[in-house]
Specification:
mainly alpha
Amino acid sequence: MTEAEAGKSLHRSKHTVHDHVKSIYAAFNVQSRVELVLKWMELMAEPGKPPA
């Protein structure tokens, strides 16, 4: 889903969605959706780590 599509679905502007996405990227220290998915998969693969 694009940021514009997500904004429309959530009744928020695409700019608000963009700001949230950038905050999430910063929290996970990534620069793209692909990096975010890879980081998430890495974190979920850690032994003994409960699912979020």
